[in-house]
Amino acid sequence: MRPRDENKELLIRQKAIEMIVTDGLDGFSINKLAKAATVSPATIYIYYKDKDDLITRLCIGVASKMLEYSFEDFSPEMDFAEGLKVQWVNRMKYFINFPIEMEFIEIMRYTHYYEEVNKMLTVSFGSALGPFMERGIQKKQLVPLPFEVYWSIAFAPLYQLMKHHHQGNSYVNNKFELTEGIMMQTLELVLKALKP
User: Fold this and answer.
1) pTM of structure
2) Is 21 among the domain residues?
3) Structure confidence by residue, pLDDT tens digits, 30-57
4) DSSP character for 2?
5) Are 79 and 44 found together in one domain?
6) DSSP secondary structure string for all residues of 52-101
């Protein structure tokens, strides 16, 4: 059995993410990946059991990195507005630094490969965002809402702005760039909507 090479494994992961974003899952195969990463298919099987294992582990890896960014400098003890701002700034930073990974996770979100990520997110969000929401409600900084409604109001506007930024335009403007000013203006509106 050949030894693992971290640089080779990183290259395989990067090429796989790029290929899935560019060609979709239907256009993705181990043979095409091997050619793109200039390795043999056998090399890929040193690191991954099969194509499904590779894609599942890619999903978990990208989502874990995104979570790590999202919760940097965040504490469930924070006041609601401050904690939500920290998460928005972190998510925007992740998106700006890793646009391909962000696009990859959006593609994967609606596939069976995302099931393991959902399990991980349930634990992470339950332990961090559950207490954060409860504290916000207790301090009368957040209107009581089901988590799904909260999530839709709290984060969907940011993700939509990120999509417009990535596309470089919006439905009415030929050019759009997500700036910190636009992000903060939108966050203020979201906070108003979530206050009791």
Assistant:
1) 0.85
2) yes
3) 999 999 999 999 999 999 999 999 999 9
4) P
5) no
6) HHHHHHHHHHHHHHHHHHHTTT--TTS-HHHHHHHHHHHHHHHHHH-HHH
